[in-house]
Amino acid sequence: MHLLAGGASKEAWAVDADGERLLVRRAAGGVIHAATLSLEHEFEVLEAAAEAGVRVPKPIAYLGELGGREAFAMERVEGETIGRRIARNPPRGLETQLADELAKIHAIPRERLPFLRGGDILERFYDELDSVGDPHPAIEYGLWWLREHRPQPLPEVVSHGDFRIGNVAVSDRGLEYLLDWEFAHVSDPREDLAWPIVRAWRFGADERRLGGVGELRPYLARYAELTGLEVAEEDLGWWEVLGNVKWAIGCLTQCRRHLTGVDRSVEYAVLGRMAAEMEYELLHLVDGR
Amino acid sequence: MGDRPAAPELVEAVWEFLSTEVLPTLDDHRLKFRTLVAMNALGIARRELESDETDLSQDELRKLAGRIRSGDVPPDAHSILTAHVAAKLRVSNPAYLEKYE
Q1: Cα distance between residue A146 and residue A99, in whole Å
Q2: Does the structural domain A2-75 have CATH classification 3.10.450.50?
Q3: Which are the contacts of B88, defined by CB distance < 8 A and separation ≥ 6?
Q4: Is the CB of residue A185 less than 8 Å from the CB of residue A161?
Q5: Looking at chain B, which residue has its C-alpha nearest residue A274?
Q6: pLDDT for the residue A28
Q7: What confidence score (pLDDT) does residue A203 get?
Q8: Is pLDDT above 70 for A47?
Q9: Which of B28, B35, B70, B85 to mutate to test the interface with A (most CBs of A within 10 A)?
């Protein structure tokens, strides 16, 4: 048994039991982000996704408290998860495979997961931005633009909440598993659809709009074919700005984990300086619109 | 202020030490990654120490943020903010700006 990764809110342990290769996810000591699911709920989401036929590691069991902290076990899977490596050499067909999985997630009945939260996303962003303390007028500008240009909402669906390259495991065959369900919530389906097109999640392959791995057209066409929901590229513009605002604020709040001493780490520290990249991108995206 | 090396030169020396003596010895990819992140942090610190740019003060930023929040957005806000964020990026990640050229 050994620790694969540790952080402020979650640990991941590799455990081999009765010939099965397991991954045990356990809560760590740190403060958990307000929008993060408990491990019990994350496990339920994983079960619901598996029932819906989404490619996820097989959920094994919710373990309750393990040494005072809750944990669950799932299948330990193989596959490439490093965004930069996937974007350098994306497997063929990944665009439509991403749409396949997203359509299955969005079809999960909301009543199957009644604990998932929704609510006004811009209000949540303002709360998070205020928790940072320092002024960020470029992010304020993005939030103001979003307020002024709100699209007509679509009916809310079960949403993965962090659907992007970096949270999928791929092989030469294409998409193998969808990982990291802790941000699941209910939202307008376009929030998930647009999250992987945010420039930061193209991992340097900027010219491939969809996560640095492919084009938007086949992805949106496949999603429409499976869900009946036609979303045009330009309908994602507002959500792409929203995604940049979200990740800019995410960088700042994660950096505060370091600055406040909750979880000292050079990785969290430099995120505070990375927020400017999303600020620049959002200003670029809203220019003249 | 004091004797050489000056602060940017000290930061550079640590960067070179990590780059030439530590990084090549690392096998663990996680540790490698974190070392690269640490070197990146040193690069930011060095550029900030060497920078003579003048940017908006914290007070000006706070006022502008407050005005935008209340919906009273100055007509030149977009260009002021683009210049401000570009100044931050010249310190944090100058290569990033090239994407927009």
Answers
A1: 26
A2: no
A3: A273, A276, A279, B55
A4: yes
A5: B92
A6: 78
A7: 96
A8: yes
A9: B85
Confidence grade of residue A124 (pLDDT, cut at 50, 70, 90): very high
Largest pairwise CA distance in chain A: 61
pTM, full prediction? 0.95
pLDDT at B2 over 70: yes
Q: Please state the rounded mean pLDDT for residues B91-100.
A: 96
Smallest CA-to-CA distance from A138 within B56, B48, B5, B1 is with B56
Q: What is the SS3 assignment for A25?
A: strand
**Under a CB-based contact definition with an 8 Å cutoff, are residues B37 and B71 in contact?**
no
Average pLDDT over residues A119-139: 95
- Interface A–B counts its CB contacts (< 8 A) at 80
* Structural domain spans, chain B: 1-50, 55-101
A63: tokens are 């373990």
Distances (CA, A) of B4 to B7, B9, B32, B42: 8, 8, 30, 18
Q: Answer yes or no: CATH 3.90.1200.10 is held by domain A83-286.
A: yes
pLDDT for residue A263: 84
pLDDT at res. A175: 97
Domain boundaries, chain A: 2-75, 83-286
For the segment A96-115, the average pLDDT, to the nearest whole number, is: 98
- Listed in order, strand segments (DSSP E) in A18-58 are 20-27
Which of B37, B44, B69 has its CB closest to that of A267? Answer: B37
| Cβ contact B92–A274 (<8 Å) | yes
Q: Which residues of A touch B30 (CB under 8 A)?
A: 5
Burial of A127 (0-12, 13-18, 19+ CB in 10 A): exposed
- Rounded to the nearest 10 degrees, what angle do helices A216-227 and A94-106 cross at? 30
Residue A117 has pLDDT above 80, yes or no: yes
Using CB atoms, pick whichever of B44, B66, B81 lies closest to residue A283: B81
Q: Express each pLDDT in A217-251 by its tens digit.
A: 999 999 999 999 999 999 999 999 999 999 999 99
- Least CB–CB distance from A138: residue in B40, B44, B81: B81
Question: How far away is chain A from the Cα of B4, in angstroms, using its nearest Cα?
Answer: 27
What is the value of ipTM here, to two decimals?
Answer: 0.96
Contact at 8 Å (CB) between B83 and A279?
Answer: no
